[in-house]
Amino acid sequence: MGASLKRIGLITPEGVKDAVEIEIKHAPIDRVLTRMTKGFLARLHPEIDRRELTFRLAQLDQFKLNDSSFDEIRKALFHFQRGNGVYRCWYSVDSRYSFMGIWVDMFFDPAAYLVEHTSDRRIVLP
Known about the structure:
The protein is α+β, with helices and mostly antiparallel strands. Helix content is 21%, strand content 40%. The protein has 2 helices and 7 strands, in the order E-E-H-E-H-E-E-E-E. Strands 3-7-6-5-4 form a 5-stranded antiparallel sheet, covered by helices on one side. Strands 1-2 form a two-stranded antiparallel ribbon.
């Protein structure tokens, strides 16, 4: 990451401000977030076989997480955090049938990611 540092001019309503741009490779971040999610699933939902799951990840626009519509979504999700604003997580998992789940991971407020998992498992209802 350090090798990608580049000075730029950021255009703001107050004028041009000096800033730094960095390049972040998504593959290592995706691996870490997938492993974290599997760990949370092992702890919170041990009945789910994590080997059956397919994971999809996306970076979220942190500015939209303060939107009132996300506040409504957050109310329907479970939540936990570690540290004082260091890490927060909102999630919902169907542990009975589809094993589908969504996880919103937020680090230090500006870095937010969505992790979704699904299973190809065929469900036979009674």
